[in-house]
């Protein structure tokens, strides 16, 4: 952090201007957000204004940008927990039994809904004799919709839930002896899960901050993201973001074997970390670093297989449940396919999970569109006048996956937060998008509340979805603009090549791309 010492500090008031950010920094020199981000400059006015020209940087014995970022993340996580706490309140029914208070649509009215709470019973985690992928149960027994169900999450996430359920049992046992406070089992389970998810997000903030090198303050965007306030405890996605962020850090430090191992573990929790192998492949092909990519990809696949094979062999039907449900799952209310279907009245994307109808057309369209998007990103990578940064391509690939996928659960937006900070370190722009995306939660909850209960009609919710998606498309367009005009990229304008590129950082292209014969293109190559 910065220590301001007496006369060495130049106070910047409303009548003075902050120092101009240099176009190119010396090695090791930090980027100062209060110099080149108007939002940050305005936020610093209550504490003395932007950083002075002669301020002593990096001298404080304890406070550093990373520790400040982690502190901000802790505050955001506390606020996020309070936002969900309304959904673990209890009441006493007429028989004197304590019940979870979800009366009168509380999860939607209070907007505190979290998947963690209903999953405790729906995945049979409240039974002490269950084990993921081995234990099965029957839904809709005695009807035409009768199905046998198993744990529906990937292996690492399923085990995470089961371990937390066992910790809940242990907590309640100790609470009965009077050594710990008691509560409803589901409330204890939620709090234990929230603790680990909070630690996972702190790891995400830490790893992103370490990856940013000369822009450590940008990690504050990950720490205080409005999406964290709303969604870090909505589901279990913080586990995958932690593995993804640490994998990128390992790659940045030229440890492809560790990066691959972490990506494999992340994929065992949520499949999306494997998507990062796509931009890495494109960049390594252009830079002639295919061996490093093959090592990372091989270890990622091997790790994923090692984690999954024991369950696939011991309980193949239960292990396959996650993949079966994702194949048979219909379009999500948050997807563009649902918007198209609703506006056009066309039922070609339809599929009924309850009756086992697989949406074949929808699955094919999703696959074709995503592959086409990846092909386009590959073309941009290989034809750009300067090799793109890893953060830029990682954001494009994951954003393309979400935009073309049939499911965009609200917590999936957390995947984009650290990647967006790496790709587009523009504070006002990113905070605007994060606020917009987080606000979609309100019409979503009001839509699920139902019009009969004074909720919102579907059109309002779908309108918010379209605005959210257009915002992400706009970010992707800006990234592509920065790729083709590197001088407008804040990272490269400061003199860096690819801070998280690892072997790619500063590496020559295997086949250099000839610049266009325009003054602008020649300036870019220079």
UniProtKB/TrEMBL annotation:
Entry-linked InterPro entries: GT87, UCP010361
UniProt topology in membrane: Multi-pass membrane protein
Presence of the UniProt keyword Ribosomal protein in the record: no
Polar residues bias spans: 517-526
GO molecular function per UniProt: hexosyltransferase activity
Highest taxon listed in the record's lineage: Bacteria
Membrane spanning stretches: 186-207, 219-252, 258-282, 294-315, 360-382, 460-480
Keyword tags: Cell membrane, Membrane, Transferase, Transmembrane, Transmembrane helix
Region (Disordered): 1-25, 490-526
The protein's name in its UniProt record: DUF2029 domain-containing protein
